[in-house]
Amino acid sequence: MSKFSFKQFAPFAILMIVAIFALFIPLLPNFDEGKYSGPDIAFILIAAALVFLMTPGLAFFYGGMVHRKNVLSTMIKSVVAAGVITVLWTVVGFSLAFGDTIGGFIGNPSTFLFFKGVNSGAPHLQGGSDLTIPLSLFAVFQLMFAIITPGLVVGAVAERIRFTSYILFIVLFAIFVYSPLAHWTWHPQGFLFKMGVLDFAGGTVVHISAGMAALAGALVLKRRKSHLEHKEVPPANIPYVLIGTGLLWFGWFGFNAGSALSAGSLAVSAFLTTNTAAGAAGLSWMFFDVARGKKPSVLGFCIGAVVGLVAITPGAGFVSISSSIFIGAIAAVISNLVVTWKQKTSLDDTLDVFPCHGVGGIVGMLLTGVFATKTVNAAGADGLFYGNPAFFITQLKGAVIVIIFSFVVSFVIFKLVNLINPIRVSEEEEELGLDASQHDEKYSQGTLLVEERAIYIEKNSPLTESIS
Known about the structure:
This protein starts with 5 loop residues before the first helix and ends with a helix. Strands 1-2 form a two-stranded antiparallel sheet. 67% of the residues lie in helices and 1% in strands. The model is unreliable at 446-456 and 463-468 (pLDDT under 50). It is mostly helical and 468 residues long. Strand 1 (101-102) and strand 2 form a beta hairpin. InterPro entries: Ammonium/urea_transptr, Ammonium_transpt, Ammonium_transpt_CS, NH4_transpt_AmtB-like_dom. It holds the Pfam family Ammonium_transp. Keywords: Ammonia transport, Membrane, Transmembrane, Transmembrane helix, Transport. This is Ammonium transporter.
């Protein structure tokens, strides 16, 4: 039995303390069924489930692209966020994001502490209009966004970040980056919301924040040994990437269409713009590669489609379906060029999270400022393309604020985590692979099949028979 370590015991102890405290939260009656729309409840329940599906989808998407010895460690870092953020969101995260505002910058942590009063809460947020769904359903829908956001950061720091340090990063990121941004952008009293910034489903809150955190993490953790030695790391399982892309694309319908928060025409429009942008971006990335002399690749289409999904997210309910073709196609080209530029630098963003999610989110926010139209959503504003440069400037200001805030705070968090617990694995652990060094597990699918096939061929070849 290993020697007792306070650092090893601390996560379990904290979870048990939280679990015990939860027993003493006063029970309140459930919401009044008569206040809400049954069809809207059914729609958002399905949308929330679809968004949750994106997290294992992301695990497959990332897991398929890393080295075989790091597949499991990469996948679990995406999926473990479902546990960490669920508990944190219930305890204080939802309050920080959507509790009674404190100056438009953060929610009061006591408003919904341990989900106190969420089931019986009024069907609106402070200063907002009434919801047609229970506050508890709104809370769980927003939880799914909070889960996947830190999971996106994994791709930038894959193959070298210590698992326990990553868990601590998730907690601090959710409290000090994600929750404030959600409050600024989506709370009716949030300062970006009141400034007129439009982010339909998470261009700033999810993608720019994750992209800038990814950039900060790559800078703090520095380069992998394989990156320093300019070794090509072959993807472990490209079919995994295809599966992940399909799950992400499918789940994104809940991500964007569900953000309408009701089963109406706005949700239909968001669904269509989402699908159209993804298709256009996947083709754009692939065809742009071909135009530059490369062969059309599976990875290229998959990555491009995800970039399109990222780029359309902020404007999914504000732009026309035809505009979404342009948004997807242009975002894919810009992200592709940034990836090419990044490969010529010393930046080791393992799976190009910053070029794809960070840059894709920025492009999406700015193009929302260009192509948003009241024809699609009366609650929105006309963009630059329709003669309103003021709204484009508002989107630009909002994007710049989020970029600076997300990068600076995430950089500080990574540095702080490194002081508490070394954030990077040792050179020996990196060489061994994080599956074995961090989890005492190994990814063997494929390898065993290849070895068994080789043995079979060797035993049954004519040469073997003639020798015997």
